[in-house]
Design brief:
By secondary structure, the chain is of the alpha+beta class. A hairpin with a 5-residue loop joins β3 (77-81) and β4 (87-90). α1 (7-17) crosses α3. The termini are far apart. It contains five helices and five strands; from the N terminus they run αααββββαβα. The protein has a three-stranded mixed sheet with strand order 4-3-5, with no helix packed on it.
């Protein structure tokens, strides 16, 4: 589907390309509101959908209640903090062979995989350790 270019969509894409934070739509809205006072959260969501349809970004539904968005379309894994919900890229090689192994082990036609790693981020570890020291 062809979409006309809009300033809002271009700016949303720029924000996503300029961060490794894997932001929510609300985060993007808060950033845009200062420079585009008339923008609505609905406009942000509509433009995110268009960018997904255009394969410019991907939606990361981690089940946290808030979808996150990523402009890095290369296959990669994510680290998710169980305390604060932050999401980071995990810099390890993508294991594409797992698709072939899954294909051989099932009757499914495998189209891809997604692996997420959960734990506690450095910031939350530091906060926890500092709280332990002061208590």
């Amino acid at each position: 589907m062809n979409y006309r270019k809009t300033k809002q969509r271009e700016r949303i894409l720029e924000l996503l390309q300029g961060t490794k934070a894997h932001p929510t739509a609300e985060w993007l809205y808060d950033k845009l509101k200062t420079e585009m006072p008339d923008i609505s959260l609905g406009t942000v969501y509509r433009n995110l959908k268009v960018l997904i349809d255009q394969s410019e970004i991907q939606k990361l539904p981690f089940g946290s209640g808030f979808d996150r968005f990523d402009a890095d379309m290369s296959p990669h894994y994510h680290l998710i903090c169980e305390q604060c919900g932050s999401v980071e890229d995990l810099e390890i090689p993508f294991y594409k062979e797992i698709n072939e192994q899954a294909q051989k082990s099932s009757s499914f036609k495998i189209s891809g995989h997604r692996i997420e790693f959960y734990g506690i981020c450095d910031h939350c570890q530091l906060t926890y350790n500092n709280n332990q020291i002061t208590n």
